[in-house]
């Protein structure tokens, strides 16, 4: 705003002002007025011209350069845990909308590692190499001047190892014939399992109370009673590894009820 000497005889209310920007914007302006419509991060030179309504004269200021900017805002972060037997996690991020914030750059950091520049939103699936392992993500956005906003954080855990240990249930059976996949291993006429009787493989005996390790199940017919649900016998079991045992003959019961996956 011009002072009295600079107005060259014009009163303050006889002088008006206009501005013109190197980026193309122009129009009337009042002293102290804020003018919008400029792109964040783009430098612009502004020239203000004073015009008198009573004197055919005008004065233009020297150009002044400024770079507009806004708040980078606060991003969001979330994590998705791994499913049963899944050693991976998924970490997600999202930046504020550029219609409401000045977001020039988005960076993430995984589990305290180095910061890396990424797209405004996305996800990262990480194989942790183990079960029930936690991984974290930090997200930060930066405006057109490179000023960072608040950091958002989240974490996720890889899936549980779907492994259970059980034994035969003497309250249900005395012994159980372990089956092959799609097999008809029990002979109800001779009471044999693959032609064998007594406490020997492929029988499973409750009196042994031997350890049975299981991770998944199948549904198949036993060939004489009908459709049954079976645990697959895994490494670490006391016998018949790789074969199948009727789930209801063990203490674990129904595999689906404890979240076990199908084989």
Structural notes for this entry:
This protein has 263 residues and is an all-beta fold. The protein has no helices and 20 strands. Strands 1, 2, 3, 4 and 5 form a 5-stranded antiparallel sheet that branches. The termini are far apart.
List keywords for this structure.
four-stranded antiparallel beta sheet, five-stranded antiparallel beta sheet, mainly beta, 38% strand
Task: State Rg.
Answer: 38 Å
- What share of residues are in beta strands? 35-45%
Outline:
rod-shaped
Helix-strand string: EEEEEEEEEEEEEEEEEEEE
Supply the number of helical segments. 0
In short:
By secondary structure, this protein is mostly beta strands. The protein is built from no helices and 20 strands.
Question: Which helices and strands occur, and which strands form pairs?
Answer:
Blueprint: E1 15-21, E2 26-28, E3 44-52, E4 58-60, E5 64-66, E6 76-80, E7 88-94, E8 105-110, E9 116-118, E10 121-127, E11 134-142, E12 152-157, E13 164-166, E14 175-177, E15 186-187, E16 192-193, E17 203-205, E18 212-221, E19 227-233, E20 244-246
Antiparallel strand pairs: 1-2, 1-3, 3-4, 3-5, 6-7, 7-10, 8-9, 8-11, 11-12, 13-18, 14-17, 15-16, 18-19, 19-20
């Amino acid at each position: 705003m011009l002072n009295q000497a600079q107005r060259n005889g014009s009163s303050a209310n006889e002088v008006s002002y206009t501005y013109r920007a190197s980026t193309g914007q122009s129009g009337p302006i009042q002293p102290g007025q804020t003018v919008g419509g400029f792109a964040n991060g783009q430098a612009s030179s502004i020239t203000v011209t004073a015009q008198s309504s009573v004197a055919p004269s005008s004065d233009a200021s020297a150009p002044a350069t400024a770079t507009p900017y806004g708040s980078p805002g606060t991003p969001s972060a979330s994590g998705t845990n791994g499913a049963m037997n899944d050693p991976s996690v998924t970490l997600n991020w999202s930046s504020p909308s550029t219609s409401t914030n000045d977001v020039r750059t988005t960076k993430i950091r995984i589990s305290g590692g180095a910061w890396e520049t990424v797209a405004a939103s996305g996800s990262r699936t990480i194989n942790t190499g183990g079960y029930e392992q936690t991984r974290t993500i930090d997200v930060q956005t930066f405006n057109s001047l490179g000023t960072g906003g608040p950091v958002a954080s989240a974490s996720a855990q890889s899936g549980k190892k779907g492994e259970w240990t059980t034994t035969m249930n003497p309250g249900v059976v005395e012994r159980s014939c372990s089956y092959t996949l799609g097999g008809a291993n029990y002979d109800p006429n001779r009471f044999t399992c693959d032609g064998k009787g007594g406490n020997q493989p492929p029988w499973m005996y409750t009196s042994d109370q031997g350890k049975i390790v299981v991770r998944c199940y199948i549904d198949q017919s036993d060939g004489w009673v009908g459709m049954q649900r079976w645990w697959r016998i895994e490494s670490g079991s006391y016998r018949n590894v790789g074969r199948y045992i009727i789930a209801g003959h063990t203490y674990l019961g129904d595999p689906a009820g404890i979240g076990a996956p199908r084989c």
